[in-house]
Specification:
The chain is of the alpha+beta class. It contains three helices and two strands, in the order ββααα. α1 packs across α2 and α2 runs antiparallel to α3.
Length: 89
């Protein structure tokens, strides 16, 4: 397994009311959230992000690919926390 750091962390709001903020800094952490903690039914971007993270962990993709896919999945699920903003949940 080749876990890698993201260039910049990605913040997502998880938990029942979305009040727990996770600062995702590594590909393995993103994969864990996508597989075990994702708050909504999976969508297309969620599946793309899972595959991207697993490809990085297998050593066939770069971390920036997984980060971009994770951000897109978080936007799709409405859990991305933008810098300087707090979730409205």
């Amino acid at each position: 397994m080749q876990d890698q750091r993201f260039d910049e962390p990605v913040k997502v709001a998880l938990g029942r009311s979305g009040n727990t903020i996770f600062n995702v800094e590594r590909v393995a952490q993103a994969a864990d959230i996508l597989i075990n903690r994702w708050p909504v039914v999976t969508g297309q971007r969620h599946m793309v992000a899972r595959k991207a993270c697993l490809a990085v962990l297998e050593g066939t993709r770069e971390a920036w690919v997984a980060r971009a896919a994770f951000i897109n999945a978080a936007i799709e699920a409405d859990i991305l926390v933008e810098p300087g903003k707090t979730p409205n949940r």
